[in-house]
Amino acid sequence: MDNVTPKLRSITGVARALIATVGVDEAVTILVTQFGWDVAFSAMSHVEGPEGSRGMWLTLERAGTS
Is the pTM for the entire model greater than 0.85? Predict the structure, then answer.
């Protein structure tokens, strides 16, 4: 996570915590609602593994429906 703003680093941490607590689908819903699809997508792009990939796709799907 080089050259990442402190705000995005914090939101990425929130994304990881939400994924661990409520799962990817609900985490994306919460992040998009609170921060917008662009910030949610950026945060999800820094989450490693299949959760991050799924989160990015879900964020894009939600962006297309809002």
Answer: yes
Query: Any alpha helices (H) in 1-66, and if so which ranges?
Result: 6-22, 24-35, 37-45, 49-65
Residues 6+ apart with CB under 8 A from 30: 18, 22
CA 57 to CA 52: how far, in whole Å? 9
The amino acid at residue 53 is S
Average pLDDT of the segment spanning 18-29: 97
Report DSSP state, residue 66: -
| Residue 23 DSSP label | -
The position carrying tokens 């429906």 is 65
Cβ atoms of 19 and 52 closer than 8 Å = no
Question: What pLDDT, on the 0 to 100 scale, is given for residue 12?
Answer: 96
Q: How far is 49 from 3, CA to CA, in rounded Å?
A: 20
- Amino acid sitting at position 24: V
